[in-house]
Specification:
Blueprint lengths: L4 H8 L5 H5 L7 H9 L2 E7 L5 E7 L6 E2 L5 E5 L8 H8 L3 E7 L6 E11 L2 H4 L12 E5 L2 E5 L2 H6 L16 H9 L8 H10 L2
Amino acid sequence: MPDDASADLNRLYNPPHKFTVAKCIDHVDRHGRRFIELSPFATLATVGANGSVDVSPRGGGPGFVHVSEDGKRLTLPDRPGNNRLDSLRNIAEGTGEVGLMFMIPGIDDIFRVNGPASLLVDDALATEFAEFGKVPKTLLRIEVREAYLHCPKALMRADLWGDSHRIDRATLPSLSEMVSDQIGLPKPEATHAQQVAGLRETL
């Protein structure tokens, strides 16, 4: 980026409202705690040792992420996935910095948490996060440095929970079909419905 990029940004955009800056706090307060208790979905951003950035979806029953009593720490279970382990490796080998965005279906507000994270292997604690009959192998422990409610404009523009942009799943090929095309494999024999059923068995 050019050296004067920041100056250009300052010229193009108004400064943030003092309320927008002040709302960033160093712990999860009662409103943030309630938001996380109701949230079944979050995105997790991590930074690798080489500076690469990864964003991963995380989901579970509402409250699948636990908040410490003092609001200074989050504990997030790692669920079965594709075993690439991008997020876990980034945390273990990279900066350890993470960013989380919690969402609640039907609510346009977002609750965000940033801070350093570490991997935790604790079999006894992991049992508290059992879901779908499975106990997570690892947990993520996030120390809360920043926590704040995010402006709802992006979700409002997207009408994410509404019907204006909703499409029939058949509009796109199945995930397996698309990936097979990308890497040059024959079209999968299983139908989309069969693939979804198989995924549900491994949640």
